[in-house]
Amino acid sequence: MLCVGIDWADDHHDVCLTNEHCPEVSGTLDRFRIDQSAAGFDELHARLRQHEPDPQQILVAIETKHGLLVHDLLRQGYVVYGLNPKAVNRYKDRHTQSSAKDDARDALAMAHLLRTDRHLLQPLKLLPDDYRLLDEFCRDLRQMVDDRTRLLNRLEACLKEYYPQAVSIFSRLDALIATAFLSAYPDPEALQKASSVEFKAFLKQHHYPCPGRADALYDKTRIPAPKADPVITRAAKLRMLALVDQIATLRAHIADYERQIEELFETLGDHQNITTLPGVGERLAPELAATLGPRPKEGPPRFGCARDLEKLGGCAPVTKQSGRYKNVFFRRACNKRLRRTMRDWTQASLLRSRWAKAYYDYHKAQGHRHNTILRNLGAKLLAILFKLWHTGEDYDEQTHIDNLKANNVVWAMAL
User: Fold this and answer.
1) Structure pTM?
2) Of 121, 171, 268, 365, which one's alpha carbon is 20 to 30 angstroms from that of 406?
3) Do 284 and 408 sit in the same domain of this protein?
4) Tell me: the pLDDT tens digits for 291-348?
5) Strand, helix or coil for residue 129
6) Which range of residues forms the domain containing residue 184?
7) Same domain, yes or no: 19 and 139
8) 237/352 same-domain check
9) How many Å apart are CA 83 and CA 124, to the nearest integer?
């Protein structure tokens, strides 16, 4: 069995080879460096096959789970372990107390970590393509929504500098009618020149859904506002138009992503029951499905128990205990994207689930902090999700409440 450690970088990778016949920490079979290129990858595979022709007997450790190199290693059939850089650093401390560091030494440490502690690690296992694509779509959609929020904040700040009356005319600055309004009336002078008839014609042209509010909206445009410095107005106007164009482009791409995510999620028949959970809407259901993967019908599941899912989402706390000392801490090492999904889910569940609201109110009255309650509630929701993932059943609110009462749960007895 060949153990390979790879310290990766943007343009090159240091590689170290060892096996179980090299018990010394300094023992190696080969050390070399390859380029981040097709020729470099071919050189890596050729040198690995010189020592071990069977790809299943080649174990590779690398401090990442993504990228071209990881994809190429998996495509070759190697057993790849994506290691946490902190774990590698702590492993090096077992053999040397100095803070010396170089890429070749890191690759050596990873190769020997596979040799000695492989039983504590989990190799990378790719989900089916549909799930991986869904996960990528959801990640990109989240990023674009965040970008839109940043642009909207900049747009609002820009308008407040020279055009404050435009901020409150429509409920949302990213709405179609709002961006069309800013393009048609980009400054206070243009707005003041618009007559009531012209303004109502603009609303009708852009299909404003509440024509009965046209007079009230026009009255808002007539409210006197402080006048900005002409220099500020000229600069801010140009900035505002640029931001409006970016928001309009993002809006179109977000709509396209939402459509493709919906179509892809509908093809995953194993996870349609996720939408029956309280607070799980069209946005959160695909994210949860991409995290879970296919329902475990045959073979070992991706998650052995609900606790594994809770740890991944950051809902399970970390306990530190030594002698008489014991304390419980917030879990920082987790999947940050799943943690954000759980935050959104728990907040939405408070509006759509009676038992979730009762749980929150009871613990809030006990003096618990808001974020702590949401994390604990998230753990309970993940436990339900884990069971539905295994059984394929739909969620039923009343059945869950009846189960809580049957177990004499204090905060559920009044439901």
Assistant:
1) 0.87
2) 365
3) yes
4) 998 887 755 678 888 999 999 999 999 999 988 999 999 999 899 999 999 999 999 9
5) helix
6) 132-263
7) no
8) no
9) 10
